[in-house]
Amino acid sequence: MEQWVVPSVVPYLIRAYHAWMEDAELTPHILVDCTYSGVVVPKQFIQQNKIVLNIASNTTHDLVINNNSLSFKARFSNKLVDIFVPINAVSSIYAGENGEGTLFKTETKKTEKKPNLTLLN
Q1: Which GO BP terms, alphabetically (predicted)?
Q2: Quick one: pLDDT at residue 104?
């Protein structure tokens, strides 16, 4: 029996907020969790494992927001750089001018926790 997988709402919201911000002449920014596997951004601009990226159409080249990732080319230090962000690494999208936007719950990495043991006499 085939099981239906419901796609995440996040890429749809990113596309909707992006369109709304551009229609309102606001600048869409995303906050990216750079600890997420597959993130490709200029490392020198990462701060506290995060980076803010301007995804306005007039600052990006070949912007693609699909259901799994967000990718584009952008200038950093006058050099054209390929950017790749898995959708689950996007923590928020907001307008640079007024902060209007939304937060997304990013997947937390599973780490093995050692049991807390106490020696009893």
Answers
A1: positive regulation of protein catabolic process
A2: 93
